[in-house]
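Sequence only, no structure available. Ideas?
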Amino acid sequence: MNLADGLDGLAGGMVLLCLCAISLFAVASGNATVTAIALIEAGAVLGFLRFNTHPARVFMGDSGSQMLGFSVGALALLATQGETCALSAALPLLLLGLPIMDTLTVMMTRIHAGRSPFSADKTHLHHRLLALGFAHREAVLLIYLLQVCLVLLAYFLRFELDSEIILAFCVFAAGVLGSLRWATVSGWRLGQLHSSAESAVISTAFMRQSGSHLSLSVS
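Reply:
I predicted one. Tokens follow.
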């Protein structure tokens, strides 16, 4: 979670979504303590995001991101583990899938390049989105959307086998990383999509205007 804290509101929003999902799973498993702690932390993070969204006036810092990361990891385990819990024990993999995927990918990239896995660079998920032309808010909202997808996936697979959940996470990660790889190799940029949309709007308006002129001429 500390590595994911690279844009205003990014880590806080991801944690908020995770805590809401954890509280839901804790209610299903009958763990009132985890439910209460998750909801209290979710309320605190929500208040923090009021001042941490772009442009941020208050920042989380390393201690804040590490504390939240530890809390989310511990609460996710407590909400889904236990002999009497009917939920799949692999659900935390989906709830924390984005920071796990980002951390493993970045470290493997650094090791492959012959550098320390703990060295600083700009190969994180949010950095790659910015390099593809996404604005600050657009990159954050897209990562929020990916986190929502993982939360929904965890909800619908909450009673499935651990192996199926691990497979679902691998497919999700492969899809995200494959899309980023394709966009990087092909030179795709979000600005191209905006330009195409603007061109389509202009062409449509021109065709409508031409059609109206033609109708007047016929009249």
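The CA atoms of residues 146 and 176 lie 9 Å apart.
Hope that gets you unstuck.
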